[in-house]
Amino acid sequence: MRKSMILSRDAGAVQSRIAVGMSVAILLVVAGWALLRHDTPPSPLVPLRILENYPHDRDAFTQGLLFHDGVLLESTGRKGQSSLRKVEVATGKVLEKVPVDADLFAEGLALAGDTLVQLTWKAGRALKYRWPNLERAGEWAYEGEGWGLTFDGERFIMSDGSSSLQFRDPEDFRVLGRITVRDGDLEVRFLNELEWVRGEIWANVWHSDKVMCIDPESGRVLRRLDGAKLRKRVGGSASGDMTFNGIAWDKTGERVFMTGKLWPQLFVVSE
Q1: Which of 219, 170, 218 is CA-nearest to residue 191?
Q2: Do 34 and 52 fall within a single domain?
Q3: Pair (4, 97) in one structural domain
Q4: Nearest-CA neighbor of 188 among 162, 155, 208, 153?
Q5: What is d(CA 141, CA 132) in angstroms, rounded to the nearest whole number?
Q6: CB atoms within 10 A of CB 118
Q7: How many other CB atoms sit within 10 Å of the CB of residue 215?
Q8: The dihedral sign for the CA sequence 179, 43, 257, 266
Q9: Are residues 73 and 175 in the same domain?
Q10: What pLDDT was estimated at residue 38?
Q11: Is 27 in the same domain as 62?
């Protein structure tokens, strides 16, 4: 009997040690996995404040927007309706309008020096115009879709609806490099209209009321700007045709303009 009890105690001790060993091993695996994942929290969400608002053409399917020499320059989309426009800020009046070929769907817009460049969605054509007379000045070809475009003073930055941004040469539009945009550990897809603001890339996200403020070196989202107040003013749905799309930076006046597709208002906003 005594021998049986001793054997039983020994077996129990062995099982206990095995259980402890397995628990330690599991904890080490979990800890190691957490270290490998490098969990990064999402960027802070910052509500936008509305400072001013102006009329905006509610028939304008806004695809690109920029501010230069006191006026807004706007690219509008849809086949048969696409255009390049010069717009008066205070009234929303279209001062000049250049129709785009009826078979093209115009997209993002950027200015480099005295050359305006307007993307097209699926045609692979970047249309060039002379500033300020808006005369056509040739075009460049590119692969893939064209969504948003901006200029950082040295390079064009282009989106194609994915989580990737392309840097392109202003002389010939060739690709110079790419970054992948991430918020925390998650890639941000459907990057749309772009603007260069104080050394950051600001990007609308298709079918979202958020603007991503992106580090151009790493692709990391520094913060997200929440356009819920703008949406409340204009109505509609972020997932419909009236999606939030249009950012323009007035460097001299330190103003940020924002609007959307078919929106009746243009807003001056701040963080």
Answers
A1: 219
A2: no
A3: no
A4: 162
A5: 23
A6: 28
A7: 14
A8: positive
A9: yes
A10: 57
A11: no
Domain interval for residue 249 = 46-270
Each of the 271 residues of the chain gets a pLDDT tens digit; together they read 444 444 445 545 545 555 545 554 454 444 444 444 558 999 999 999 999 999 999 999 999 999 999 999 999 999 999 999 999 999 999 999 999 999 999 999 999 999 999 999 999 999 999 999 999 999 999 999 999 999 999 999 999 999 999 999 999 999 999 999 999 999 999 999 999 999 999 999 999 999 999 999 999 999 999 999 999 999 999 999 999 999 999 999 999 999 999 999 999 999 9
Pairwise CA distance, residues 153 & 207, whole Å:
29
* Structural contact between residues 156 and 118, judged by C-beta atoms closer than 8 angstroms: no
Amino acid letter for position 208? S
DSSP H helices in the chain: 2-37, 228-234
pTM of the entire predicted model: 0.86
Residues 136 and 260 in one domain: yes
CA separation for the pair 149, 63 (Å, rounded):
10
Whether the link from the prior residue into 132 is cis, omega within 30° of 0, is yes
- The DSSP code sequence of 235-254 is -S-TTSSS-EEEEEEETTTT
Alpha carbon 57 to its chain's center = 23
Residues 141-174 as b/e (b if ≥16 CB within 10 A, e otherwise) read ebeebbbbbbbbeebbbbbbbbbbbbbbebeebe
> Is the distance from CB of 50 to CB of 225 less than 8 angstroms?
no
How confident is the model at residue 22, as a pLDDT? 56
d(CA 262, CA 244): 9
Q: Are 25 and 34 in contact (CB under 8 A)?
A: no
